[in-house]
Amino acid sequence: MEFRARDHVPALTGVLSAISLALVFGAVLGTIPVESLPRVPSGIVDAIPHVNAAISLVAIGTITTAWRAIRRGNVDRHRALMLASLVLFVAFLALYLYRVALVGTAPFPGPETIYQFVYLPILAIHITLAIVCVPLLYYVLLLALTRPIEELPQTSHRRIGRVAASLWLVSFGLGVVVYAMLYVIY
């Protein structure tokens, strides 16, 4: 029996999402053995939040530009920009998970009232959207990678892609706000 990815997009989406989210929760909950990770100088680890903020801003630009490109019918530009956005997201996530596995999450340095009524709700929305985006992004990516461009309009790529891109943009944007509250404002 021949396995064809195009015939199993929902199942592959589920498997890839489960693996990805297990890695995220494993890093955040401290279950990834730190000794298995390569060591870098502490200055590099300390720079990761700043690099990730820059990656997020660039990703916001690539996603927005990709959205504009597809609305104008430029499929090749859309594809290139969305693949660039995916690479940026993977880089962001790898750096984030590496840092969290090594040093844990950053404590909020601001006032308690801001923490409770501003920071935590923004962080909760950011995290929720990031989790929701994972299967949506895998789904539209797998549809795009397993079908010729001419077939994509007959799939849910466009409909799910709009939702995924919107949530992805908001998640990246809120991530920048979280960064600003942790490292710039306070």
TrEMBL record:
Record's GO cellular component terms: membrane
A Gene Ontology biological process term: respiratory electron transport chain
Entry annotated with the keyword Transmembrane helix: yes
Molecular-function GO terms, alphabetical: cytochrome-c oxidase activity
Signal sequence annotation: none
Transmembrane segments: 12-32, 47-68, 80-98, 118-142, 163-185
PANTHER family in alphabetical order: DUF420 DOMAIN-CONTAINING PROTEIN, HYPOTHETICAL MEMBRANE SPANNING PROTEIN
Protein name: DUF420 domain-containing protein
Organism: Halococcus saccharolyticus DSM 5350
Lineage of the organism: Archaea, Methanobacteriati, Methanobacteriota, Stenosarchaea group, Halobacteria
